[in-house]
Amino acid sequence: MIRRSGPGGSSPAKKIAATEKTPINSVGQDALCTIFSLLGIFDLVRCSVVCKFWYKIINQKKLLQQFCCKHFANHGGLHDEPDISKKPWRFRLEELVMEHQKLSLTRGRVTIDQWKGHSIGVNQCRMKMGTILTGVGDKVMRLWSVESYKCLEEYSVPDTVSLVDFDFDESKIVGLIGTQLCLWRRNGQRSIFPPRAGTFPKGLCMRYLDPEAVIGCEDGSIRVFDMYSRKCSRIMRMHPGPVTCLSLSDDQFVFSGSSAGTIKVSHLSSDACVTTLRTPDITGIKALCYNPRSGLVFAGSSAGYVSCLDFRNRRKLWELRVSPSVLYSLGHMQNDDSTLVVGGMDGALHVLDQKTGEGLCSYVMDNTAASTSSGTVERRKGRRLSVDDYNSLIDKIPRTARPPVTCLAVGKNKVVTTQGKYIRLWKFTGHEL
């Protein structure tokens, strides 16, 4: 499904489809094939989901397959992998997407659109389905459009409690409020779990994978709640100290980090610990991210280290100190096993190679006046720094220009961050395949 265009204009796919008087399938197949052959790979993918008629043409003519084969032939892929024709074209398409993502994050131009989304600051964000959910700084969560930056919906938090963490899907928002869970329907209806069923020791973090919400608690336990029965279905005692961060996999593995620097892996079907992963850095773990495609676990620490551990082989692959101070958040685009984006106290975005741990580059916002402004949204330029430039220049950039990155979420050619009072959308452009 193609989203409505924002202030930046429409893609070629939308321009082709945007006609009120001419039916979408009135253009002949030969004409459409000619038009489609002139498009880039990502616009061609967008066209393939406009309607069944377009999908049929693109699929029957094997336009995506031809593009993939042509691209890899031009870049030496056919010589390096003689069996390319035997591989599914969708697999090759995924490789193209990841290649484009890496080029955009490391070589493309960056612009930053920022706006004040909350009255007293914001330090949590989630990005899904073309929307951004932000909150925790005040008594309200807000859902924003990624394209227009308009506030689509608001969800109020009860006055007597504080919002700690949240997650959402297409129909509901699940929030951790003190020692209870709260559920907001997308139609605005709010309900708090009954005290006896939904109360637990102080919760510090939460992740949601329908139909279960998983909560990391101050007493070192992990509590699993069924969102339909509204009862605690499992208590897993994993750590001797507080559980500081969580990550879930689609196959129901739970990765939990602690203030003692250990990572415990458990499964939603059992109370037992599957394995323990240890990082060389003994300081507390502040952020966790699991990549199901590669089986790698990434951890960010209080001392500025990022560690990569191989879950399948139970071993450490690499460790890198990317910042002199605490790292609060890290992530990658879904299914991307090439790049990792990290943010923390230093206010910079760091891009790493997932496989090797090599620091590819860092980004900060240019400390100049806004280049453009539209209502409450300001557009600024981003500045890319090499590893050497970062080490020599970061302390010379005023702290007011780089407030801490308290949370981030990574999408296609974009990263959303929460920094002080601002929500920032970093857009990376300039590299086409």
From TrEMBL:
<dbReference type="InterPro" id="IPR036322">
    <property type="entry name" value="WD40_repeat_dom_sf"/>
</dbReference>
<keyword id="KW-0853">WD repeat</keyword>
<protein>
    <submittedName>
        <fullName>F-box/WD-40 repeat-containing protein At3g52030 isoform X2</fullName>
    </submittedName>
</protein>
<dbReference type="InterPro" id="IPR001680">
    <property type="entry name" value="WD40_rpt"/>
</dbReference>
<dbReference type="InterPro" id="IPR042627">
    <property type="entry name" value="FBXW2"/>
</dbReference>
<feature type="domain" description="F-box">
    <location>
        <begin position="30"/>
        <end position="69"/>
    </location>
</feature>
<dbReference type="InterPro" id="IPR015943">
    <property type="entry name" value="WD40/YVTN_repeat-like_dom_sf"/>
</dbReference>
<dbReference type="InterPro" id="IPR001810">
    <property type="entry name" value="F-box_dom"/>
</dbReference>
<dbReference type="Pfam" id="PF00400">
    <property type="entry name" value="WD40"/>
</dbReference>
<dbReference type="Pfam" id="PF12937">
    <property type="entry name" value="F-box-like"/>
</dbReference>
<keyword id="KW-0677">Repeat</keyword>
<dbReference type="InterPro" id="IPR036047">
    <property type="entry name" value="F-box-like_dom_sf"/>
</dbReference>
